[in-house]
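Sequence and structure are kept together here, with a separate record for every protein. A complete record is shown below as an example:
=====
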Amino acid sequence: MPIKTVFPALIATLGLVACGGGGTPQEQIDRNISKLVAACSDKGGDYSGAAGLVAYTGSDRDRKFKSLASAEGEDRSILNKQCYQISKLLDGGKSYTLVKFEQETESEGTWYIQHMSFPSGATAALAFLEIDGTFALADID
């Protein structure tokens, strides 16, 4: 294959990897779960690292499930709530097992659900929506 053909494809692939994109929805969600676990394990309670990984679920109907939560204002409480739930499930550790992955179509769009188990025996279903090109955590059951 001529270098003129290989080089653009290589650049595109490296760009996807560098941005954290690429792969199946399940692979992208698994990477985001890893990032969320790291951000939500902050012992000082600074969960700003979860910004851009969590869906806005506040009172603004125009933004709910349609935009990403930031680390500012009302959005900050959304990050804190989701991270608190994750840190409670992790029970002081960072260990978890991915159990089952599924998709469901609802009025908000396609929900991607990753079922998980934790060493404490706790289980949870983390539900994600695709927002602005990323799979954002929108609910924890």
About this structure: The chain has one domain: 24-140. The two ends are 49 Å apart (CA to CA). Helices lie at 3-18, 25-40, 73-90. The domain at 24-140 is CATH 3.10.450 (Nuclear Transport Factor 2; Chain: A,).
